[in-house]
Amino acid sequence: MGSGSVLKFALCEALQFAGLCVPLFIIVQRFAVIVARVKTSAQPPGDGHTAYWLIVASSVAYVTTVALLVWVPMKYMVFMKKKFLLRKKWRPVALVYVVLSTLPCFAVLIASSEVQINNNIQSDTFTELPVSLVLFSLVCIDIVERIPAAPSGPGTEANGTVPGAPGRPGRPFSVSGLSSNSAGSGGVGVYRPQPYGYNGPLRFLCAADARADVFADGFLFWMDTVEMVRVAGLPAVYYSGWVFPIYIFSFLSCLRLVVMPRSVLLSALGVALQDLPFLFVRIGLIAFFGFVTPVLYLMKNLLVCLAFVYFNFMTKLRFLNTERMYF
């Protein structure tokens, strides 16, 4: 392994470990501030300073324990290529991150809301930042895990183009073109045809690279979850019981990260863990709070669920099967 490879490996590992630790520290510190204010304003007033440092120390102890007992041994086994951790259908690093980082973060966010509701105070002033950190860390973990596995295609050149036949220019290569299933959630596979080669003066604009597609798909994969947790940050929703279904179903949607990007299970999991639960949650939010969530996402969840059922189950019926219409 050359010096450049070692540097990239160290950078990726540091980025993943920071994604594991930083959101936890920030969210727990924010929760500690809320608890300290509650203790100070209580009757009789308690020791908010002691409560603050106890909570912060607990977060440091938790991260240290997770790093030493779970994260480092797992990364060592992955690096040593243990067979039971190198299955092609799931990603162990993503599973550990979702269970040991995302789940505690969402639990602390719910606890922060409940503490303020029960004590009739509203001292939280930056609800959007912690959620953005959690989801950005998820995106980073996803991208770092997918970049080494991004296919380069047979005969792919350094700029990501596939050489064509003699006398024909190479055509751009797209990672999404290798599979009929898009990286985003949903039950309907989308095939995006490859663009034809172009040999004009603007041919440099036709250059494509699978790694750039990984970055784009990595963010698009989480847009629905981002919008859902954004709604939880609104004061009317945050200081109500609706934070429970929002964060619970948002966490369930994060479990899709464990499945490999081009797995055949991704479509069904996208419907079961995201689109169907989000559909009912958004209907309830609009009924209780008005249009706090865009109707566009509601229609997306509805259409994806209907399309999944129709194309996977209804078309198997004889009178709906267009292939048998004339036989």
From TrEMBL:
InterPro entries with a match to the protein in the record: Uncharacterised_FAM23-like_TM (IPR020394)
Name assigned to this protein: Transmembrane protein 236
Membrane-traversing stretches: 12-32, 52-72, 93-111, 236-258, 265-289, 295-315
Keyword Repeat: no
Keyword Membrane set for record: yes
Entry keyword set: Membrane, Transmembrane, Transmembrane helix
Superkingdom field: Eukaryota
